[in-house]
Amino acid sequence: MSTLIESLRRLFLLGKITADKLQQMQANGKITADELTYITAAEPSGELAELQQYYKTTQAILPEVQ
How far is the C-alpha of 36 from the C-alpha of 56, rounded, in Å? Predict the structure, then answer.
C-alpha cells in the first residue's frame, strides 16, 4: 500500500481520524473502496498496541507545540 494509505490506517487505529472522514475521502475519489476497507479493517494482533506505544514514546520526546 502507498504511504498515504498506511498513514491513514495508522491515524485511524490511533483514533486521530474517523471512519466518516475516510468515507468522505472515498466518496471524493481520494481513496478507493478497497483502500477504505484496508484502512478500517480490524488490526492484526498487537498492531494497535505497538502503534499506541510508538505514539506515546514519540510524544514524550517531541517538544510541546504552543
Answer: 26
DSSP state of 65: P
The CA-based dihedral angle spanning residues 52, 57, 61, 66, taken in that order and rounded to the nearest 10 degrees: 20
Q: Count Cβ atoms below 10 Å from residue 62 Cβ, excluding itself.
A: 8
Once rounded to an integer, what is the mean pLDDT over residues 49-63?
A: 82
Amino acid, single-letter form, for residue 6: E
Single-letter code of the amino acid located at 62: L
Task: Residue 8: name the closest of 39, 41, 44, 49 by CA.
Answer: 39
Location of C-alpha cell 477504505:
36
Q: Which residues of 5-19 are buried (b: 16+ CB within 10 A; e: fewer)?
A: beebbbbbbeeebee
Question: Over 80: is that where the pLDDT of 9 sits?
Answer: yes
